Amino acid sequence: MINLGHLKYLTQFDKMEGYWRNLLKDYPDHPVLGQEATSVPLTLYGDEGQALGGSWMNYHWCPDLSPCISTSACSRFLICCIPASMYVFDENGVNLTLQAATAAIRDSFNELSTTGVPILDPKTGERVLTLKFWITNIKGDWKFLHQTFSFQRYATFEEVCWMCRCTKGSNDAAWSFTNVHPTAPWMATIYQDSPWLVQPSLASLQGFNLKMLAVDILHAFHLGCGRDLCASAIRMLASRPGHWQGRTQEDRLQSATVRLREYAKANKLTLTLRRLTKVNLTWESSEYPELRCKGYDTFVVCKWLSAELTTRDCGDDLLATVCWSADSFVRVMSKAGMFMTNDEWRHKIHVGHLFLCSYLQLASRALQRGERLWRLRPKFHLLWHVVHEHRSSQLNPTVNSTWMDEDAMKRWMRITRMTHKRTAAIRTLQRFLLGLPAKLRSIEL
Ligand SMILES: [Zn+2]
Question: How many CB atoms lie within 10 A of CB 249?
């Protein structure tokens, strides 16, 4: 990219020193030390997508300081496209295919961190400086991290979390992720030991630190606990007469839909969700309520519920508190810059903690009443880490949300669908590279 004159898409030079000054507070021994002004930070992303009747693992990278970070076509660069049908596992469940692929990716990035790329003066051809590139964050959904880092602790196991030793509480309730009392024993285990049995390839990236594996708020909240929250709250409000007009539950959901759409329109928020129904609230099954909607819909519904319950008393303070605090802590993070101010950071901790505690109280109250409401899934625990993580840099957790990466993923899969299954892995890359110069030219910098 540099040889083709695309350096300007890779970073904003004026922001690099400040970026590293902040980030190195988290990683004081990072080998970038002393070369901050000529070091470009990058994020590695991975996810599986569907095409040609199968799953494909795509890895791409994105410059942390890209000047066009919110245009996925000009800031996300595909590395590989691996058919899941090719996966080979060893007896420990390690995905050998992905380990081999990520070993090659690691070697390539390590060369960029150690040897770097010389920048030449276009007139004289002399070397002006050597740019180095470093992976500073690795993100994707939880399943991707599990696959790529061969976690022994994962959402489907008794020990759920790669950051600590909390459990589902089957053997000892004190170790359960639902125990968020400050004396919970798992809190003393955060980042104390490796979550894998066999060291994964990417753990030997230059400057690697386990804290670089990021929680993706899109999957943890907007496609996870946030959807549980919205559905349980709406179900509580629509179950009985009072808050929304209507004689039957269906009528009350109908008037809630009208209010939601009016709110979205008045606040210029895009809503894909057309109606609130018993079907998309998972009301009639024996499952816990979950709003079947897109990630952005959760953001809008949460914001609307917060407005609904803070302007009109619903007679349930706990319910009003959970909706307000969820919306408030997520909204402050999404509006904050890459590194949060002290006030924003404190807001995240205190209001986020209020959300976690009030949600747990509602879950426990529902359990006592024998109601299937307020599902507590392991993703809830990832939100605990988002709220309470110790990070001197105050790096905004929403920086590692994958909204734009999901957008890029859709594009990779669209390309794959235009190829033949047998040659898809190589053709997808070729077509991506062919289309890239025009994409970059299309954006004004
Ligand atoms: Zn944990």
Answer: 16
**What is the domain range of residue 44?**
7-142+402-441
Are 256 and 237 in contact by the 8 Å Cβ rule? The answer is yes
Ligand 1 center–CA 384 separation, angstroms? 8
Is residue 276 in a domain?
Answer: yes
Are the beta carbons of 282 and 290 closer than 8 angstroms? yes
Do residues 130 and 261 share a domain?
no
> How many angstroms is it from 48 CA to the middle of ligand 1?
24
Q: Are residues 393 and 408 in the same domain?
A: no
How many Cα atoms are found within 13 Å in the side-chain-facing hemisphere of 199?
A: 10
- Give the count of beta carbons closer than 10 Å to the beta carbon of residue 212: 20
Question: What spacing in Å lies between the alpha carbon of 111 and ligand 1's midpoint?
Answer: 33
pLDDT tens digit string along 358-388?
999 999 999 999 999 999 999 999 999 999 9
User: How far apart are the CA of 47 and the centre of ligand 1, in A?
Assistant: 22
- Of 256, 306, 307, the residue nearest 280 (C-alpha): 256
The amino acid sitting at 257 is T
- pTM summary value: 0.96
How does pLDDT run across 237-274, given as a tens digit for each residue? 999 999 999 999 999 999 999 999 999 999 999 999 99
Q: Per the domain annotation, does 204 fall within a domain?
A: no
Together in a domain, 322 and 432:
no
Rounded CA separation 388/376 (Å)? 18
Taking the centre of ligand 1 as the mean of its atom positions, its distance from the CA of residue 326, in whole angstroms, is 20
